[in-house]
Amino acid sequence: MYRNYFKVAIRNLLKHKMYGLLNIMGLALSITCALLIFLLVKYHMGFDNYHNNPERIYRVVTEQHRDNVMYTFSTPPALGSVLKSDFDFEENISRIVNFENAVVGVETANGIEKFKEPAGAAFVEPGYFGIFKYPMLNNGNPEAALTDLGAVIITERLAKKYFGNASPINKIIHVDNVLTVRVTGVLKDIPSNTDNRAEIFMSFKTLKEVEPWFTQPDAWGGITTALQLYIKLKPNVSPAQVENALPAYVKKFRTSNKNVHVYKLQPLNDVHFNPLFGGVIEKKTIWILSFIGIFLIITACVNFINLSTAQALRRSKEVGIRKVLGSMRWQLFWQFMAETIIITVVASVIAFVFTTLLVPYVNNLFNARLALDTFKDPILLAFMPVLMLFVAFLAGFYPGLVLSGFKPITALKGKMSFQQIGGFNTRRVLIVTQFTICLVLMIGMIVITRQVRFTQNTDLGFKKDAILMVPLRPSDDDQKGKYLKEQLLKVPGVLNGSLCYAAPSSAEQWNTNIRFDTRTEQENFLSNIKSSDADYINTFQIKLVAGRNLFPSDSVREVLVNETLVNKLGLTSPDQALNRMLYIAGGDQKAMIVGVMKDFHDGSLRRDIHSVAITTIIENYNNVALTVDLNKLNTIMPAIEKIWTATYPDYVYEYTFLDHNIAQFYATETTMLELIRVFSFIAIFIGCLGLYGLISFMASQKTKEIGIRKLLGSSIGRILWIFGKEFSVLIGIAFIIAAPLAGWLMSKWLEDFKYHVKIDATVFLIAVAATIFITLLTISYQGVKAALANPIKNLRSE
C-alpha cells in the first residue's frame, strides 16, 4: 500500500513539473538556511564545553568603579598568587599570560625559518592543565613537561608545521627573538571551538625572564588584557561564596586607590558570549539567527500550502474517483503526505549539497570552523531527520486534510466551493504571515545598513583614510623607531608619519589615573593615555581648540588633553587647563598641559568619548603611522617592507590600514548585515513563490468573473486591480503587524550604540514600497495572462 502511495505521488509530480519544482526550490532554500544556521548555532554554543566539569570553571574578571564602570576580563597579576595561597575554594587555579602574534623561529639547515602565530605564545601555571582538558600524545603529563625552566609544549599541528615528520622532542625554538626554549611535550590538537587558541605553552616561571612584572607579588596597580585568571571550584562550592570573599583583597591591597575594583566570577559558558568582557558573539545574535531560521522554514511551508491548495481543483476529480472506488479519507491523506515527503526528501538532498558548498563561505564570513560531517556528528545526524519530518508535517498536514476531505459527488461534478479547497481566508492568513516575516527582515536590513554606513562615514574627529599602521619591534635602542620613521618618510608617496602607541581610535588603550595641578587627590576617572611624538596631530589631522601642539622631545615634558578631560576636571573653558601640570599613573609621569584637542572618538561608537591625554613617552611607541598616497601604493608598499625588514631582520613584516582596523569594531554588525540581506532575499523569493500560487488560485476561481467583465468593456488595468486590491489589503495588514514589531526589535538592537542612526518613517516606507513593487512583479504575469484570455472560451468552460 505504501509503495503505491509513493508510486502515484511520483507520477503526479512528474505530471505537474512546475508545481513540484516551485515547492522543491522553496523548501531547499529554507532547509539550506536552517542547516547553516544550525551549524553556526551549534558551533558557538559548543565553545569550551568539552572540558571536564565545565560548569565548575570560572574566569575572574574585574569591574573598575570610578565615575563610570569599566569592564575587563583580566585582573591585577598579584591577585592570582594571593588567591592560590589563601583560598580553599578551588580545585585548581591558574594565570595565563598570552602574547598574541608571536614570532617563532625554527632552526633549519638553511638558517632560522620564521613563523607568525596570531594565536600567540602563552605562559601558564601548573594548575592550567588541571582546569582545561588538553591531553598530550602518548598519555603524557603536561604539568610535568613544563617543570624545567625554558621548557615548552606545542600542539601536534605546530609540531608537524615546524618539524615535519621528525620528532619535535628536545628541538629548540625561538619565541619573539627573546626566548630560546626546548620542546618537552606535544599536545593533541586543541578543538577549534575554544576562545583560548594559543598552541604554545611555557611555564609561568619562565615569564620572569621576559616580563617580571607579571610575577611580582605586589603587582596590584595595573591590569593588562594579556593576563587571564581561571579557577575551577571544588564540588558544592558556589561562585557566590568566592565573590563574597574577594572584597577583602580589595580593602587590603588597594586601600587608597579611587579606582575601586570589584572582582567577579564569570562562568566559562559565558566567556564566548558576554560583550562586556570581550565576548565574540552575543547570545541575542544566536537567538536572532535561530528565529530567522524558523521564520524561513515557516515561510517555505506557507508557500507549499498555498501552492498545494491552489492545485486542489486539478485534483478534485481524482479524489472523487478514489472515494467512489472505496478509498478512505486517511488513505487519501497519506497519499498526499507521500507527495509532501518525496518533495521534502528531494529538497533536503539539494539543501545538503547547497550547504556543503556554502560552508566555506560561512566560515570565512564568521571566522568560524564549521564542518558538515553528518555521520561523525550525532547531533547533526539527529537534527536532519527531525527537520525533514517537521517540514513534511508542517507543509503537508493542512493540504492533505483539505484535499482528502472533498465530497465525491461535488468533486466529480467540479462544483467545489472556496471553503472546500482551503478558501481565501486561510490563504490570506498565510500570505499575511509571509508578508510580515519579509517586512520584518527588510526593515531590519535597512536599519542595520544605515547603522553600518553611519559607522563608516561619520566624522570621528581625525583622519582615518590612507593611514598605514606599521608596527615597531622590541629593541634595546630607543632611537631605532625614530630612524625607521626617518627612512620611511623618504619613500616617495609617504606624506606624513608619527611614532605612537596606537591610533586615535584603537582597541589598544592604556587607561590610568591622573592628578591635576595642585590637587592632592587623584581624579575620580581614568584617562586614555596615548603616547606619541609631536607629528601625531598633523598626521591624524586632529584639531586644537586651545594652545599649541607638542614640541619634539624624547622625554615627557608636555601633554595635550581633549575637551572631555577638561570638562571632567570641572574647568569652564579649555584655556583654564593650559600651562598647568598633569600627573599620570600615580605621578610616574608629569607634564605641562600645552594644548586642548577637539574631542575625537577614541574607540567604538558604542560608547562615550573617554578623557584622553597625549604625551611623549618614547618607550611606549609601538607603531609608526604613515599617511600615504593611495595612487602610488604599488611602489610605496615594497619600499616600506624593504626598509622595515632591514631595520628588523629577525621579525616578520606586517601592516594594517587604519580604516580597516576601525571597521573591525563593527565586524559583527557587518556580518549580521550580510546574513540579513541573504535571508531577506531568500524569504522574499520564497514569498514570491507563494504569491504565484495564490494568484494562480485566484485566476482559476475568477475565470467567469473576468470573462463577464471583459464582455462588459472592462480594461486590462481594471481587471488587474481585481488581483491588486486583494494584495494591497494583505500588505497593509502585514505592515500593521510588522512595523511596530520590527521597530521595537531594531530599537533594542541600536541601544548597544551610544551614537546611532534614528529609525524614521522612511525606513518603513522603503520597506513597504519594496514589498509592493516585488508583489506587483510577481502577480503581473498571471494577472495579465488572465486579463488577456479569451472571455468566450472562459465562459464556455464555466
Q: Give a count of the beta strands, DSSP E runs of length 2 or more.
A: 23
Q: Structural class from helices and strands?
A: alpha+beta
Strand content: 15-25%
Average predicted confidence as pLDDT: 84
Please indicate the count of domains.
4
Distance N terminus to C terminus?
Answer: 37 Å
Radius of gyration: 34 Å
Indicate the overall shape: globular
Give the count of helical stretches: 25
Question: Could you estimate the helical fraction of the residues in percent?
Answer: 40-55%
Membrane topology: Multi-pass membrane protein
GO cellular component, one term: plasma membrane
GO molecular function: transmembrane transporter activity
Pfam families: FtsX (PF02687), MacB_PCD (PF12704)
